[in-house]
Write a structure and sequence with these properties.
The protein is mainly beta. It contains three helices and twelve strands. Strands 7-8-9-10-11-1-2-3-4-5-6-12 form a twelve-stranded mixed β-sheet.
């Protein structure tokens, strides 16, 4: 997976819709609200599968995730290729270890309406997303999230909840490809210092974008 495909894979903003809205939309959305309202930090392992429009596997990968509200997260892809996606609160750093290339972008604009801010950001989800209940399937309660901004790398996101924990995230892009992320060994509210989310480009890496002061 190359850098240009990383952004749609991210998932991170705490949703804060009014309680009455969640009650009207159904149990799954209420579960999502309950989960996100109590999650201030999170650690998990993940596996990721990318499927084409015919549901044929294009790519598989795995790694670890940590996040801390607001707007801090780190996806560490361990296999098959080492890649890191890190948000320090104001910017997102995308590091391809093999290419020795770092891309840095502000955590604003269309990126603010991407899965990159669907579980670890602010509470103003209604500003950027439409949220609806999708019912139960395969033992999970599903919530659909659609960006209001159309100039994004994905069309829609589905979150699957088992009990009070999110277990699966599915992202569909404009080409019909489906990215399915499954979480395991989830730890809710571990102690995570801000220093874990400060990224410094490695010596010799090619940096694209305004890096400013590393990790600031």
């Amino acid at each position: 997976m190359r850098i240009r495909k990383l952004t749609p894979v991210l998932f991170v903003v705490a949703l804060g819709l009014p309680t009455a809205v969640f009650a009207a939309q159904g149990n799954a959305v209420a579960r999502m609200q309950a989960f996100l309202s109590r999650v201030h930090s999170l650690k998990a392992d993940f596996t990721q599968v990318v499927l084409d429009a015919n549901l044929q596997t294009i790519k598989q990968s795995s790694g670890t995730l940590i996040l801390k509200r607001p707007n801090r997260f780190r996806w560490d892809y361990a296999a098959p290729n080492r890649e890191i996606i890190d948000a320090d609160g104001t910017r997102v750093w995308m590091y391809d270890v093999e290419l020795q290339q770092v891309t840095v972008k502000p955590l604003t604009g269309t990126l603010a309406a991407s899965p990159a801010v669907l579980l670890a950001g602010s509470n103003d989800v209604q500003q950027n997303f439409i949220v609806k209940n999708l019912g139960e399937e395969n033992g999970l309660d599903w919530v659909g999230v659609t960006p209001k901004i159309k100039d994004t790398d994905f069309d829609s996101v589905k979150l699957g909840f088992r009990g009070n924990l999110v277990e699966v995230m599915e992202l569909k892009d404009a080409l019909g490809n489906l990215t399915r992320i499954t979480f395991s060994h989830v730890q809710v509210n571990p102690a995570l210092p801000d220093s874990l989310f400060k990224f410094t480009p490695p010596p010799g890496a090619d940096v694209i974008g305004d890096a400013g002061k590393p990790g600031s």
